[in-house]
Amino acid sequence: MRTLKEITDELKAQFMANEALAAIYGIGPGEKFGDHFGKASIEGLLIYIAAYCTYTLEYMMGKVQAEVEDMVDRLSPGRPGWYARKLREYLSGVEWDPGTGEFILDGDPGDDQLERLRIIKHAVAEDSATGQLVLKIAGEQNGERCPLSQEQESQIDAYIQRIKYAGVSTRLINAQGDTFNCIISIYYDPLLAREGVEHDCQAAIKDYLRNLPFNGEYSNMALIDALQKVRGVQIAEMQRSSYIIDGHDEEIAIDARVQPYAGYFSPGQITLEMIEH
After folding, report:
1. Burial of 30 (0-12, 13-18, 19+ CB in 10 A)
2. What is the pLDDT of residues 6-29, one digit of tens each?
3. HSE value, Cβ hemisphere, 13 Å, CA-based, for 29
4. What does the DSSP 8-state code read for residue 24?
5. I need a labelling partner for 32 at 20 to 30 A (CA). Which of 59, 77, 99, 167 fits?
6. In angstroms, rounded to a whole number, what is the distance separating the alpha carbons of residues 99 and 5?
7. What pLDDT score was predicted for residue 86?
8. Alpha-carbon gap, residue 254 to 166, rounded angstroms
9. Rounded distance, CA 38 to CA 272, Å?
C-alpha cells in the first residue's frame, strides 16, 4: 500500500506536469511544487486533503482484502496461505495441543504478552518448482526485519512438522536479508548542496528496500522512480544492481526484478555517482 507521502508527492508531480495549470501559475519545465507553493498554501492544503482521502480509501480497501484473504485461508486449510497464517500465529515456548490444533495458554494473557510470544513477524508460503512448500519467516528487531535464532528455528521447524499435512514436503528459510548492492548515477541540480541530495538519495533507497512487502518483488524501475521523487534529482540512472544471499560468496546481478531469497533485503554497498546537471 502506498504511504501518505507517496500519494502526496504523486499528486504534486501531476499538478506540476499539467499544462493548463503550468500556464496559469507560470510553472517552468523541471520546477518542483515547493518552488512555487509553501506548506500552508491553499494548493498544498487541497492536495494534502485529496491525498489523505485517497490514503484512507486505499487503507480501508487493503484491510478488506486482507480480511477476505484470511477468511479464504481459514476455510481452505492446507493452502500456502493457511501455512503462512499458522506460522504467524505460532507462540514461542508455549505447548501445542495436536487434538485441538491450538496452543495451551495459562490464564488469559493480554495482547502485549501475546505479541511478545508471536516471534514470527513475517511469514509467506509458496510452492516451488521442485514440489516443495517453501516457508520463509523473519522476526523484527528495532523495527527492522531479522532472522530468528537457531534454537527458535528448530522449535518452529518441529511445529511445522506437526501441523503440516501428510505427504507435504516443506523447506524453512530463516535467513539474514539478502545483501543489496547497486551503482546509480544521480544527475542533480547544481544549485543544491551535493551532500544533501546524496544523503536524501541514500535514505530513499533504504526506505524503498525497507518498505518492500515481505517476499515482495524488487524492481530496478521502481527504485529509480523512488529516486526521481527526491528533491534536486533531475535524472537517476541505474548502472548496476546485485544481491548476495547470506552464507554465499556469489554476487548475483539483477537484470530488472527479483524476489529476495530470504524474503527481504539488507542494504549493502550503495554507490551513488553524483553528477551536476
Report:
1. exposed
2. 999 999 989 988 888 888 888 888
3. 1
4. H
5. 59
6. 48
7. 92
8. 37
9. 30
pLDDT tens per residue, range 159-214: 999 999 888 999 999 999 999 999 999 999 999 999 999 999 999 999 999 999 99
Q: Work out the end-to-end distance of the chain between its first and last CA atoms, rounded to an integer number of angstroms.
A: 33
**Contact indicator for 132, 169 with CB cutoff of 8 Å:** yes
Burial label for 40, CB within 10 Å (0-12, 13-18, 19+), is exposed
Q: Longest Cα pair distance anywhere in the chain, in angstroms?
A: 72
pLDDT at 157: 94
Task: Fill in the amino acid letter for 39.
Answer: K
Cα gap 176→183, rounded to integer Å: 22
Please tell me the distance from the alpha carbon of residue 209 to that of residue 216, in angstroms, as a whole number.
10
**What are the start-end ranges of the E strands in 105-173?**
122-127, 133-141, 144-146, 170-173
Q: What SS3 class is residue 85?
A: helix
Residue 88 sits at the vertex; the CA angle it makes with 87 and 94, to the nearest 5 degrees, is 75
CA dihedral 53, 58, 60, 63 (to 10 degrees): -160
What are the cell numbers at 95? 505447548
Question: Which of these, 224, 229, 267, 261, lies nearest to 245 by C-alpha position?
Answer: 261
Taking the model in full, what pTM does it have? 0.72
Cell numbers 503550468 correspond to what residue?
Answer: 22
Q: Tens digits of per-residue pLDDT, 209-266?
A: 999 999 999 999 999 999 999 999 999 999 999 999 999 999 999 999 999 999 999 9
The single residue listed with the C-alpha cell 493480554 is 110
